[in-house]
Design goal:
globular; disordered C terminus; 3 helices; mainly alpha
């Protein structure tokens, strides 16, 4: 009986993490629409990446989400390099 309770708690945790990721995506989208400063947007994207990494570690089948997290990491790095590149 305790084994199924542990699995249920893990499932609830996974759903809560997914919900938090979706809420953060919505917040990022809202910031983009409001034309928030790049630093504010990057802070949210960094937090999103951290949330996604936590989710991947707890996901029963991490290969489904690992690629998405890696793509987010690459996109974040590309965005940061654009922001720190000197303007001519």
């Amino acid at each position: 009986m305790s084994h199924s309770r542990g699995r249920r708690a893990a499932t609830v945790d996974a759903v809560e993490k997914e919900r938090a990721i979706l809420e953060r995506l919505e917040r990022i989208d809202g910031l983009r629409r409001e034309e928030a400063p790049a630093g504010v947007l990057l802070d949210e994207v960094r937090a999103l990446l951290s949330d996604a990494e936590d989710w991947v570690r707890d996901e029963p089948v991490p290969s489904r989400t690992a690629d998405a997290v890696e793509q987010a990491r690459v996109a974040l790095a590309a965005g940061e390099s654009v922001l720190v590149a000197p303007r001519l």
